[in-house]
Amino acid sequence: MDQFDPARVAVRTGHFIGGDYVDEGGRRIDVARPSDGVMYASVPVADAAMIDRAVEDAWRAFKTSGWASMAPRERAKILRRFADLVAADVETLAPLESLGSTRPIRDASNWDVPFTAEGIRFYAEFADKLGGDVAATDHDHLGMTIAEPYGVIGAIAPWNFPLVMASWKIAPALAAGNAVVLKPSEMTPFSVLRLAELAVLAGVPKGIFNVVQGDGRTTGDALVRHPKISKVTFTGSTRTGAAIMAACAGSGTKPVTLELGGKSPQIVFADAPHLDDVARRIAGAISGNAGQVCVAGSRLLVERALAEPLAERIQKVFSELKAGHTWSAGTTLAPIISEPQTARIESIVGRTVAAGATLQCGGTREGASYRPTLLTDVTPSSEAVREEIFGPVLTLQTFDTEAEALELAQHPEYGLAAGVHTADLGRALRFVRGLEAGTVWVNRYGRSADFMIPTGGYKRSGIGKDLGRQAYEANLRFKSVLIDLRQ
Ligand code: NAD
C-alpha cells in the first residue's frame, strides 16, 4: 500500500479484557497523529481497579481455558492461524499503525505488519520444542526439569514500532502457554487492539491476550506491581526500566526482561569495501524511522583518511529523504513522534553546536519531521555524543588507530549494538570480541529477518533478550524433579 486517506481509518478505542472491549469512562488521554499533531481519538486510563480486573481475568483464563494445558501442537496451530490472520489483515492493520505512529504507510505495510505476523509464526513453531531435560543422575534416581509457563505476563511496550515491539513480547509468552496483559504506549495505543481481536478470531481463548490502556505512572506501575503478574517484560527507556525493576523488586521480586536505550557506534575503517554502500548503510541506520530506533547507529567513528568522502556521501543520502505525512505516497523521512520530542532533539543539537560542534547539515524542522543532521568537531563529552537523542542526529568522530577506535566506541553507560565496517576479517573479529555490546554487526547495520538471532543490551541497555530461543525460554520457568526409583 502506498497511501491512504486518514479520514477513512476506523479507530476502536478502550481496553481489551476477556475478549471484549471495555471502556468505563474516567480519566482519558487524547492521542495525536505524529504527522500533523491532530488529536484523533482518546484512550481511557486504566487505574489500579481496572488493572486488577484485567489481571484477574487473565489469571482465570490461564487456569481454566486450557491454553497452558492443551497439546503444544494445538497451541502452535492456533498461533499459526493468528499469524495468518495478521498477515492477511494488512489493509486494516497497516493504515491503523501508520496513522497513529511514525511509520510511513509503505514501511508499515511492507515491513511492520508482515514482520509482526512472521514473529508470531516463529514462536508458534517453538510451542512443542522445549519441554525440559532429563538430568544425568545415578541409576537409582530419575532427575528432570520440566518447563512450565509462568502464568500471567505483564508486558509494556514503547511507541517507536508499536506492533513489532508488542509482538516480540506477546508471541513467545503465548507460545509458552502464558496469558498476557499488554500495555502499549499511550502515544500509540490502537493497533495492538486489532492484534488482540485477531488473536481471539484465531482461537486464542478469551482472556489469554489482554490490552490495557493508560500512562506509565498510573497504569504501567499498577500492572507491574500486581501480585498475580508473575513476570514483567519491558521495552523502553533506561530510566523507566530502572523504575520498573524497582517496582518488581518491591512487589514480590518478579523476574524482569528489560530492553532499553542505546547510543550505538558505527566504526568505519579506510579499507571498508564499497564506500557508496557503506555511506548508504550508515545514513540508513540513523535516518530509518527518523532515528527513533533503539539500535540507531548514532555515533559514527571513521578512520581519518575517509572522514571527508564518507561525510559527503552521507549528506547526499540524507538530502534525498522526503518528509511528509505517514499516509502520503513517497514519504521516506518519518515524522518525530511528538512536539516535545522534536523540541528535545533541537535543544540537544543547539547546545552541542553552542559548545563548539559544527553543523554539517540538518538541524532544521520540516513539517513534523527533523532533517537528518550531521555534527562534526565533537568529543566523547559532547552532549550529542553522550545522550540517546532518539532522532536523526549523527555525530562524527575520527580515529587513527584500532585502539583509539575501540576506546571511542565504548559508551560509558549503553551497550546495545555496534557496527564495524572493514575488509579485514581479523580486525572485525577483534572488534566483535572487544566491543561491549549485545549485538555486533559486521559490514552491515541492522537486524535481518532471522528471528533466531536475539536482541538485547549489555550494561544499562538491558537485561535479557527479545527474539531467538532466549526469549522463548525467558517465558518459561523450570521445575526440578527428582524421583527415588528404589521405593
Ligand atoms: P518510555 O520508557 O518512556 O515508555 C515505554 C513504556 O513504558 C510506555 O508504555 C510507558 O507508558 C511505560 N511507562 C512509563 N513509565 C512507567 C512506569 N513507571 N511503570 C511502568 N510503565 C511505565 O520509552 P518510549 O519513549 O516509549 O520509547 C523509547 C525508548 O525505548 C528509547 O530509550 C529506546 O531506546 C527504547 N527502546 C528499546 C528497544 C530495545 O529493544 N532495547 C526497542 C525499542 C525502544
TrEMBL record:
<dbReference type="Pfam" id="PF00171">
    <property type="entry name" value="Aldedh"/>
</dbReference>
<dbReference type="InterPro" id="IPR016163">
    <property type="entry name" value="Ald_DH_C"/>
</dbReference>
<protein>
    <submittedName>
        <fullName>Aldehyde dehydrogenase</fullName>
    </submittedName>
</protein>
<feature type="domain" description="Aldehyde dehydrogenase">
    <location>
        <begin position="22"/>
        <end position="481"/>
    </location>
</feature>
<keyword id="KW-0560">Oxidoreductase</keyword>
<dbReference type="InterPro" id="IPR029510">
    <property type="entry name" value="Ald_DH_CS_GLU"/>
</dbReference>
<feature type="active site">
    <location>
        <position position="259"/>
    </location>
</feature>
<dbReference type="GO" id="GO:0004030">
    <property type="term" value="F:aldehyde dehydrogenase [NAD(P)+] activity"/>
</dbReference>
<dbReference type="InterPro" id="IPR015590">
    <property type="entry name" value="Aldehyde_DH_dom"/>
</dbReference>
<dbReference type="InterPro" id="IPR016161">
    <property type="entry name" value="Ald_DH/histidinol_DH"/>
</dbReference>
<comment type="similarity">
    <text>Belongs to the aldehyde dehydrogenase family.</text>
</comment>
<dbReference type="InterPro" id="IPR016162">
    <property type="entry name" value="Ald_DH_N"/>
</dbReference>
